[in-house]
Amino acid sequence: MIVCVCNNVSEGDIAREIADGCTSYAQLQERLGVAVACGCCGSCAQQSFEKEAQAAQQPRTFYRGRFGERVAAQGHAVMRLVEPQPVRARSR
Predict the structure, then answer these.
(1) For 13-65, what is each residue's pLDDT tens digit?
(2) Cβ contacts of 81 within 8 Å, gap of 6 or more
(3) d(CA 88, CA 40)
(4) How far apart, in whole angstroms, are the C-alpha atoms of residue 59 and residue 64?
(5) Which end of the chain, N or C, is less surrounded by CB atoms within 10 Å?
(6) CB count, 10 Å around CB of 17?
């Protein structure tokens, strides 16, 4: 979901910044420019930051998905991990 329309910042962008070491809402504003243009997204951006920061502190759980793929769950987020597939030579 897009949080800041002015700078096209999504919840995923906020989660990535937290994973890259962003530790405060003020630091998030510096990095992404969220809630600095018109300010309308300030409360939504802060809620997203707090939700993602809390989820980042929870341990990750790995399990196999419905089709056997490896899946990581951390808090409320579920990420499918891509496993490299062997390259097969084409037969002529």
Answers:
(1) 998 898 889 999 999 999 999 999 998 999 999 999 999 898 888 766 666 66
(2) 69, 70, 71, 72
(3) 52
(4) 17
(5) C
(6) 19
Q: Residue 83 corresponds to which amino acid?
A: E
Alpha-carbon gap, residue 40 to 57, rounded angstroms? 28
CB burial of residue 82 (10 Å; 0-12, 13-18, 19+): exposed
Q: For residues 25 and 52, what is the distance between their CA atoms, to the nearest angstrom?
A: 11
Tokens of 32: 């992404």
What's the pLDDT band for 1 if we cut at 50, 70, 90? Answer: confident
Q: Is the pLDDT of residue 69 over 50?
A: yes
What distance in Å separates the CA atoms of residue 55 and residue 62, rounded to the nearest whole number? 15
